[in-house]
Design a protein that fits this description.
- It is built from 21 helices and 14 strands.
- The chain is of the alpha/beta class.
- The strands form 4 sheets. A 5-stranded parallel sheet has the order 7-4-3-8-9, with helices on both faces. A 4-stranded mixed sheet has the order 2-6-5-12, with helices on both faces. A 3-stranded mixed sheet has the order 10-13-14, with helices on one face.
- The structure holds D-mannonic acid (CS2).
């Protein structure tokens, strides 16, 4: 069978194996503007919205996707050539399930036409602006929690409000226009892995606005809702093999489909200032307090990912499922979670922690979700301070063990020398790569040059216990390599 090119006109020609939107897309309005459309958003929030449209017929909640990064031009090309339709494939143990998602109605590529994005943000039809701009897209000092006003991207936005690069430039201009026009503000819904993501976004956005207009800053503080949310679904980067597989399996030609695991979770604080879809009817958990969920997820799932990513890569692995299935690595993450992270967690309503952790290990081991270690190792400068360092800090305060957590930091430092144990180059993907690699190479077994970056480490470099532990692990990584270092930490 010749594959069918995905588009609105070909929806009824697709294989019956592929579920397609049954609602009338032409009636869908765009109540949500989403900044940062990547695989994760398309596998997660967009699926919930698809169900809102499909099962509840709440047609005002379609999505307008927005790309704010220069590289988003590729997403624009892919999506706009297929009327923003795309294929989402869930891969579990058995048969894979495929579905064409129609929830995104349009896509705007901000660098080419920022004015169009401002208009969209100012439109009364827009009720929610959601974000997945990665942990690095928020630009804050990990030591002080303050917005990095002198960061080149933030400074650029302050100086060039008509052509912003960051969420702050876009959100503040959009909100300023609404305020001027007397339009109710939109809710800002952060869906990134940052603890208290809503509160953090609010604090940073208000301090950015303060630099422009104190009255506007106050109006934002008093009128805009920033719900916290915990998001979860493992979504690897789409590979050419995935595209080929989907063409063969479902007979559809899609320029940029998404493959993910079957698990999905979204816990959202029920605090919206301009309406919301009936999320609770499609599986979203609405609550008054997201903190315990966020902390559990980030400190267990994301931290385990980092633990497996760096050390696993150094030990020669490339995929997370292989690393999890290695007996010693499996033991390592399980023990790190049990011994060094779990004691820090608050009770999480409705969740049994032992079975949550067991499920995590099963999810990581899914061989059909080929999550590359390099995806996990990307942007360590933004992830480490959110996934790992806070647990180390809290354990130090409690006098608890930090050896397994510190090994993650040591592995990252070793990884940052950009050369593996066989002398092959490691591709470092991080906006701070140049500085990180220079410091890692300069320090080698001495962590000082990296620890001096207080915008990442705060005052952790002053803790004798932590520094001694870090040196011990680093020394081992250099002298006996990743595998033996791991064994020694487990014994
Ligand atoms: C990963 C996350 O980027 C990372 O390091 O831990 O992308 C993870 O896969 C998601 O948060 C899962 O919900």
């Amino acid at each position: 069978m010749t594959p069918v090119t995905l588009s609105e006109a070909t929806l009824d020609k697709l294989s019956p194996d592929l579920r397609t939107p049954s609602y009338d897309r032409s009636q869908v309005r765009e109540g949500i503007v989403h900044l940062g459309v990547g695989g994760f958003h398309r596998a997660h929030q967009a699926l919930y919205i698809e169900r809102i449209l499909e099962e509840l017929g709440e047609k005002e909640w379609g999505i307008c996707g927005v790309g704010i990064m220069p590289h988003d031009s590729k997403m624009r090309e892919a999506l706009t050539s297929q009327q923003c339709l795309y294929t989402l494939v869930e891969k579990g143990d058995g048969e894979e399930a495929g579905r064409v998602i129609g929830a995104m109605k349009s896509y705007l590529y901000a660098p080419k036409n920022p004015e169009k994005v401002f208009e969209k943000l100012a439109s009364p039809e827009t009720k929610i602006v959601s974000l997945t701009v990665t942990e690095g897209g928020y630009y804050f000092d990990q030591g002080t929690g303050e917005l990095l006003l002198t960061h080149p991207e933030v400074a650029h936005d302050l100086a060039n409000p008509k052509t912003p690069h960051t969420i702050y430039g876009y959100l503040v201009e959009g909100l300023a226009r609404r305020r001027a026009a007397g339009v109710t503000p939109f809710t800002v819904l952060s869906c990134d892995n940052i603890q208290a993501n809503g509160e953090v976004t609010k604090r940073l956005l208000v301090s950015y606005a303060l630099k422009k207009d104190a009255e506007l800053a106050r109006w934002i503080e008093e009128n805009v809702a920033f719900p916290n949310s915990m998001v979860d679904r493992i979504t690897p980067i789409t590979t050419p093999e995935d595209i080929e597989f989907i063409t063969q399996r479902f007979g559809v030609k899609d320029q940029w489909p998404v493959v993910c695991e079957p698990f999905i979770q979204w816990v959202v604080e029920d605090k919206f200032c301009n309406g919301r879809p009936s999320f609770e009817k499609v599986g979203v958990e609405m609550t008054s307090d997201v903190h315990p969920y966020e902390k559990m997820k980030i400190r267990l799932l994301n931290a385990s990912h980092s633990a497996m990513g760096y050390l696993g890569y150094l030990a020669g692995f490339r995929y997370i499922f292989e690393i999890t299935r290695d007996e010693e690595f499996g033991k390592y993450v399980a023990r790190m979670m049990d011994e060094e992270v779990t004691p820090l967690l608050d009770p999480v309503p409705g969740i049994d922690l032992p079975s949550y952790k067991k499920t995590l290990l099963i999810r990581f081991a899914n061989p059909n979700v080929k999550d590359h270690a390099l995806r996990i190792c990307m942007d360590g400068s933004a992830k480490m301070p959110k996934f790992i360092l806070p647990s180390i800090k809290e354990q130090l305060e409690k006098g608890g063990n930090i050896s397994l957590l510190t090994l993650v930091v040591a592995s990252w430092f070793r990884f940052l020398t950009a050369e593996d144990e066989e002398g092959r180059e490691i591709p470092i993907q991080d906006p701070m790569a140049a500085e990180l690699v220079e410091r890692a190479k300069r320090g080698k077994g001495d962590p000082t040059p990296l620890l001096e970056m207080t915008e990442l480490f705060g005052d952790l470099g002053k803790s004798e216990k932590f520094v001694a532990e870090l040196r011990r692990s680093l020394d081992m990584l250099y002298s006996v390599g990743a595998r033996k270092t791991l064994q020694s930490h487990l014994s």
